[in-house]
Amino acid sequence: MRVLSGIQPSGNPHLGNYFSMMRRMVEYQDSSELFCFIASYHSMTTVDKGETLAENTLNVAADFLALGIDPNRATFWVQSDVPEVMELAWLLSMHITVSQLQLGHSFKDKTDQGFSPSSGLFFYPVLMAADIVLFGAEKVPVGKDQKQHLEMARDIARRFNLQYGDVLKIPEPDILTDVATVPGVDGRKMSKSYNNAIYPFATEKQLKKAVMGIATDSTPVEEPKPYQGTPLFDIYRLFLDEAGTAALIEKFQTPGVGYGHIKQDLLKAILEYFGPYRERRAEIMQRPDEVRDILSAGAKKARAAAAPYLAAAREKTGLVY
Ligand code: ADP
Ligand code: TRP
Prior knowledge:
The strands form two sheets. The protein has a three-stranded parallel β-sheet. A two-stranded parallel sheet has the order 4-5. By secondary structure, the chain is mainly alpha-helical. It folds into two domains: 2-182 and 288-316, Rossmann fold; 204-282, Tyrosyl-Transfer RNA Synthetase (Orthogonal Bundle). The chain is globular. The chain has 13 helices and five strands. It is 54% helix and 7% strand. It binds adenosine-5'-diphosphate (ADP) and tryptophan (TRP).
């Protein structure tokens, strides 16, 4: 089974990215043929400084490697190192209408807020469809916010096939409901753009500040505290198994245990969980050229995997004469 997903290098990955996508990608290496990429073209819709994009790209690559992506088992590359994806995006763009793209979440959000989005943002879902079908991916692990994009990708691929025969694989979204939306410290969806995220590779001081800043209510220490639907519980839960979760509920309900105490425990749990990854990341970042080499070899592998799909699409659409 071919599993594929990408992450934008638009900042540092946070717990939402990790639990809904990055961790699962690492796990999929054991059971599937994994395709994992850094969506540099996509992040140009938000990052407009060249230096920042280049730096973020290398950083996210180091994050993924530290978390366990193994370039010998997986195909791991930067989107823009396989520019064929742009060509396929053009071929696919004939199979979705302007009015459908106008319903795209990120495009609609921007227009609803009164901004005038770039045509790049408008085209975003088409490029995302190309990312997926260029590699014949069957399964795409993402967070819930990408569901609509996946539906569009399926739609585009189906219509292309209707026109030209069975050329493209129709991808299945793979959304884990448990972690579909990880809340941020303010209870809204954790997001790089909301300033509410917890970054596992941040310094200890920054992590402490983020965890201590998790919003809680004003229930007095001596009373049992609500846990259901609270960001403190929902974030902490990510690190626990069933027994651990039961013990956490107990803590919330025990008079005398304050939120500050639970936050300290959570901080400890985060540092413990990510400790080995943090160490490995620091080592990797001492040798950035090795990361560049890994990505360059990954792009070669990705190119080879893409070639038959692009060739078929070119042939069917009449570009080969
Ligand atoms: P962000 O929304 O923070 O900019 P990205 O768009 O780069 O993050 O998302 C990368 C992956 O992480 C996607 O699969 C996305 O669905 C997932 N993701 C992002 N935020 C969350 C969240 N709060 N909870 C669960 N998954 C998330
Ligand atoms: N749009 C995705 C996000 O913001 C990133 C992405 C780009 C992606 N292309 C993809 C995810 C293809 C899965 C498959 O998170």
